[in-house]
Write a sequence for this structure.
């Protein structure tokens, strides 16, 4: 196209009718080009960033983060970014295991839109997010006032556990969703999640 990434271009618009009458130049509209990066992350930490979360933290708008097959022992927070985090080989070959931290495996709570995409992972080992004054909710995926796109994931063996003697109510061993914004969840396999 000849356009240089990261550059703002200004242009003028003029209309000409069938009789050849020309309009004055219209305003000064502009358009910017962006640099969209595709990150390749590997389970052995030899990719473009050492972890998926490190790639999320460094990613720009519309970046794509691709995880190679393997086990990723980490918890992800999209931090409000409009990015795609996807596996290369699908959910049966790529696992996010959040059991090392007592929180949800994947968190969306910074106003993420449908452009925040999580696709093709097995999500396991989550314990839920505890908000101030609350109890853990959403062991596998925690969504609060966000509207992400969740595609083709296996959400298995996550849970929220109440350690208090009062045994108050928990919600969402697999997925917890609060908010009125639309979101898209397509073709999940959800099994073996629990609330205790």
């Amino acid at each position: 196209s000849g356009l240089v990434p990261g550059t703002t271009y200004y242009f003028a618009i003029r209309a000409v009718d069938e009789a050849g009458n020309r309009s004055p130049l219209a305003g000064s509209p502009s358009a910017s080009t962006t640099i969209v990066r595709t990150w390749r992350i590997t389970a052995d930490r030899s990719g473009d960033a050492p972890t998926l979360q490190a790639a999320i933290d460094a990613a720009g708008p519309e970046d794509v983060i691709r995880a190679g097959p393997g086990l990723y022992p980490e918890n992800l927070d999209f931090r409000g970014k409009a990015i795609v985090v996807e596996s290369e080989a699908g959910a049966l070959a790529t696992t996010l295991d959040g059991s090392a931290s007592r929180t949800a495996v994947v968190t969306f709570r910074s106003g993420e839109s449908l452009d925040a995409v999580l696709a093709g992972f097995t999500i396991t080992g989550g314990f839920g997010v505890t908000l101030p004054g609350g109890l853990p909710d959403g062991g596998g995926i925690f969504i609060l006032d966000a509207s992400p796109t969740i595609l083709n994931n296996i959400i298995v063996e996550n849970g929220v556990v109440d350690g208090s003697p009062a045994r108050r109510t928990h919600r969402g061993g697999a997925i917890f969703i609060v908010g009125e914004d639309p979101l898209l969840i397509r073709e999940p396999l959800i099994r073996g999640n629990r609330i205790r």
Notes: The helical segments are 52-58.
